[in-house]
């Protein structure tokens, strides 16, 4: 009897061990990576720029002797100048932004000359004319960013607005072509007025930090013509035919909220699967 009970107990123990061996360990659910919400770069920004301006005066005209005799300057040249400005803008999305800018064109010296007659008796003369101008430009601009390649984002843009062009007094001295004499200097009062202006831009933004971008680019300004100087001693008034300004520019933009971290959602609790029977 004892041998029978011992045999039954041994058989049960062996069966229990075999059953336990058939139980596979619980397999955890694979951990999913954290969900990250990436926000598009949008928001307000400030900008500042400086540039070197190659200024081109498209010509000038004046009344000579009477109001019915308007003639062109034989020579009308402007020296190069500098520009400095700033603005505020909004990054609409990764491809479109817009801003309002205000720029100052530093003094550009004007050198001109005209030919005519002077003295008594009248002889052929050449008048040497000197003046200078400054300009303030207010523009509303829009840009298309053409995708980001590493840290560089090329762009194109256009703007529309106005420029206040201020001419200083024009001083001219007429001298006989044979060098025999020169008339006294005549001063014409300078004029200033607002003119329609448009701009075309191209360049590239360079990521410096998460909210600072350097900007290197080119801007073309087309400024309409307007009043240049007034009447004095049977000469004038005069007007210029407008300016074409080619600018090489560098600047920076500061984007508010550009360093905002992407939102993070922690993964849910990972439940264990029930034991698997083989």
From TrEMBL:
<protein>
    <submittedName>
        <fullName>Porin family protein</fullName>
    </submittedName>
</protein>
<dbReference type="Pfam" id="PF13505">
    <property type="entry name" value="OMP_b-brl"/>
</dbReference>
<feature type="signal peptide">
    <location>
        <begin position="1"/>
        <end position="20"/>
    </location>
</feature>
<dbReference type="InterPro" id="IPR027385">
    <property type="entry name" value="Beta-barrel_OMP"/>
</dbReference>
<dbReference type="InterPro" id="IPR011250">
    <property type="entry name" value="OMP/PagP_B-barrel"/>
</dbReference>
<feature type="domain" description="Outer membrane protein beta-barrel">
    <location>
        <begin position="38"/>
        <end position="256"/>
    </location>
</feature>
<keyword id="KW-0732">Signal</keyword>
């Amino acid at each position: 009897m004892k041998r029978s009970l011992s045999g039954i107990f041994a058989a049960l123990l062996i069966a229990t061990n075999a059953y336990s061996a058939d139980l596979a360990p619980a397999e955890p659910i694979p951990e999913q990576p954290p969900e990250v919400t990436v926000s598009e770069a949008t928001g307000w920004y400030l900008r500042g720029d400086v540039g070197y301006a190659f200024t081109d005066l498209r010509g000038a005209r004046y009344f000579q002797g009477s109001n019915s005799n308007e003639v062109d300057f034989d020579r009308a040249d402007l020296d190069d100048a500098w520009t400095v400005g700033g603005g505020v803008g909004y990054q609409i999305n990764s491809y479109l932004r817009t801003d309002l800018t205000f720029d100052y064109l530093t003094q550009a010296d004007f050198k001109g000359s005209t030919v005519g007659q002077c003295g008594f008796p009248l002889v052929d003369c050449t008048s040497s004319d000197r003046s200078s101008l400054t300009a303030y430009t207010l523009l509303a601009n829009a840009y298309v960013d053409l995708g980001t390649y590493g840290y560089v984002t090329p762009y194109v843009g256009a703007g529309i607005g106005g420029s206040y062009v201020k001419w200083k007094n024009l001083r001219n001295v007429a001298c006989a072509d044979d060098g025999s004499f020169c008339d006294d200097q005549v001063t014409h009062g300078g004029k200033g007025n607002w003119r329609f202006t448009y701009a075309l831009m191209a360049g590239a933004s360079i990521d410096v930090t998460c909210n600072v971008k350097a900007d290197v680019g080119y801007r073309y300004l087309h400024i309409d013509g307007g009043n240049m100087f007034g009447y004095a001693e049977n000469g004038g008034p005069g007007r210029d035919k407008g300016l074409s300004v080619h600018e090489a520019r560098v600047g920076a933009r500061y984007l508010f909220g550009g360093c905002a971290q992407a939102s993070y959602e922690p993964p849910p609790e990972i439940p264990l699967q029930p034991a698997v029977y083989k």
